[in-house]
Design a protein that fits this description.
One of its GO terms (biological process) is RNA metabolic process. The chain is mainly beta and about 270 residues long. It has one helix and 24 strands. A hairpin with a 4-residue loop joins strand 20 (about 225-230) and strand 21 (about 235-240). The relative contact order is 0.08.
């Protein structure tokens, strides 16, 4: 894994630069992180951008300080494996999926490497895990064709939706609604306060790359756009209010059908693709 910086100096938070074509092209490698012996399967940043957490197929979890680029913590999940790791709203804790034993989601204290809570329920691999931006609620979706709603304070599932196909899901920036993508063709919008009544809107998405499977959804910081990541050559941007296609971002050489992962930068309409 590599981290990047602008020019020769890491930018202090008080002197953050605005992104443009010219300064993005001038980004250079600042540090290469080689802590893992196997593939890093997920990366997540804290809400303030000051910390990064990674999970790997070698069952390790690393916590990094993003100002210094230094490793702060290493814990392992040898018994259960680890993937899709996400910070809670406290950077001392994280929630992650299992790759061994079963498909239980686990809530981990990074401080002492102890599990605080287990969230059983999914019967097949969990493919999506996302925290609410405002509280301790989180969503999971699975190859068992369900989406589950959870609260970190209880091991009991708070809501269950059977959608009939592999789903992906994401919260909007205000944590009031969530989007579910199903069958690689539809986006369904749910009100978190009344999700049991079904979606309040359903959009058919232009299926101009039929060989691409959706891998995740991401709302833009303004909430007006939904990004659809795939395992093909295309990333889609659609209007979050009517489902109209805004852009197809193409040109990725992805013959191995790895899941593309792109995110928006905070506060403006720019994005990076990993």
């Amino acid at each position: 894994m590599t981290t990047i910086r602008h020019g020769e100096h890491v930018q202090p938070r008080s002197k953050m630069i605005k992104l443009s074509d010219s300064n993005v092209k001038s980004l250079v490698m600042a540090k290469s992180i080689k802590e893992n012996t196997m593939r890093i399967n997920s990366v997540n940043f804290s809400n303030d951008g000051m910390h990064m957490i990674t999970s790997s197929d070698d069952d390790s979890i690393f916590l990094f300080d993003m100002q210094s680029g230094q490793k702060k913590k290493n814990v392992n999940s040898k018994k259960y494996g680890v993937s899709l790791i996400r910070f809670s709203h406290n950077i001392s804790n994280a929630v992650h999926c299992s790759t061994k034993v079963d498909d239980t989601i686990r809530y981990l204290s990074l401080h002492d490497n102890k599990y605080l809570r287990y969230f059983p329920g999914h019967s097949k691999k969990v493919v999506c895990l996302c925290m609410s931006p405002v509280d301790d609620v989180f969503l999971s979706s699975s190859l068992d064709k369900t989406i589950r709603l959870w609260d970190l304070r209880s091991q009991n599932c708070q809501g269950l939706m059977s959608v009939g196909a592999k789903p992906v899901a994401a919260f909007d920036p205000e944590g009031l609604i969530f989007a579910a993508g199903v069958t690689n063709k539809e986006i369904k919008l749910y009100d978190l306060r009344s999700f049991d009544k079904g979606p309040f809107a359903t959009f058919k998405v232009v299926d101009d790359y039929p060989h691409c499977t959706w891998s995740s959804l991401v709302f833009s910081p303004c909430g007006k756009t939904i990004m659809i990541n795939t395992n093909g050559e295309c990333i889609k941007l659609i209007d979050a209010f009517n489902g109209n296609l805004k852009y197809n971002l193409v040109g990725h050489e992805n013959d191995a059908h790895e899941e593309l992962e792109a995110s928006f930068t905070p506060g403006r309409f720019s994005m990076f693709n990993l």
